[in-house]
Amino acid sequence: MFFLRKLALQMIYPLNVSLFAALAALALYQLKRTRVGAALLIAAVAWLWLWSMPVFGGWVRCQLEQVYPAVPIEKMESADAIVVLGGGTESPFPPRLYPEVTAAGDRMLHAARLYKAGKAPLIIASGGAGFRMPRAMDPEAEAIQSILEDLGVPKSAVLIEKASRDTHENALFTKRIADERGFKKILLVTSALHMPRALEEFRAVCPETYPAAADFEIIFGGELTVFDWLPDVRALEGSSRAFKELVALAVHKIWR
Q: Is the pTM of this model over 0.85?
């Protein structure tokens, strides 16, 4: 089931949908269905252009990120534990010597800030080896623990959940630790783009879960230029992640 979920999401990314539509258009041309093929090819290009435009991708990401805006540390709830989700690290696999921080590494910075501010006595690092990672790689939770220690959080204050492979399993397996420890109230730390879906998953099993969003990608201000309307590979990558979140969130609401 896990593999099928991942495969289904991969297939409906804007780039893949456009490629499949273009291939179908070529097949229609071969069958002399030129009008239908031309219309499908135009639709494929338009769909890919739309999701590749910085102005559109930025708008979609902003809609997700502003569901749970940033909250100053002093105004955050106190809780029994802080849960920080994987996705912000790379394991120390050769040629790396130490765990590396990715673009979503703000998750760990924010978790460390919350801990040092006394918002919770423990942090739960949640994340397994992941779908695309070689089996020899360490679970993300262990990399998170190592980086948190570098940030001044004692190793003894970080609990490890290293079996989960996606957000759904993050919630289920973290719930087991929470039940064992008697935790009721949780501060959930993840990227702002990911927070709406992650919070839905966690609140389904841990109702007293409160958002502590980090890693905001879209900033306010600035004027649009012609380049914001032209296809950009970084915009496509960002909007594809937003598309994934929207689809997964919709599926969760339907099947919950």
A: yes
